[in-house]
Amino acid sequence: MLFERIDFGDNLPLRCLLSEVKDYPLHMHDDALEILFVLDGSCELTVVNNAIPLR
């Protein structure tokens, strides 16, 4: 799996991760916003029992 972490310094509340996602377990965030970009192909994102196709 490709995984890269990008840090922008201690003074910014920002963390960027670049990863190849094949199967990712169900999880939730209390204090973060997760943004997904599909660079190639398609996938399905499930949010609160709603399936959202991404391409």
Give the key terms.
mainly beta; 55 residues; two-stranded antiparallel ribbon
At a glance:
This protein is mainly beta and 55 residues long. The protein has strands spanning 3-7, 15-19, 43-47, 50-54.
DSSP summary, beta strand count: 4
Main sheet, how many strands, which sense, barrel?
2 strands, antiparallel
Per DSSP, the total helix count is 0
Distance between the termini: 20 Å
Low-confidence stretches: none
Overall 3D shape: globular
SSE string, helix = H, strand = E? EEEE
Sheet/helix structural class? mainly beta
Helical percentage: under 10%
Strand sequence of the main sheet, in spatial order?
A: 1-2
Instruction: Average the pLDDT over all residues and give the rounded result.
Output: 77
Tally of distinct domains: 1
C-alpha Rg, in Å? 13 Å
**Percentage beta strand:** 35-45%
Describe this structure in words.
The structure is a single chain. The protein has 55 residues and is an all-beta fold. It has one domain (3-54). 0% of the residues lie in helices and 36% in strands. It is globular.
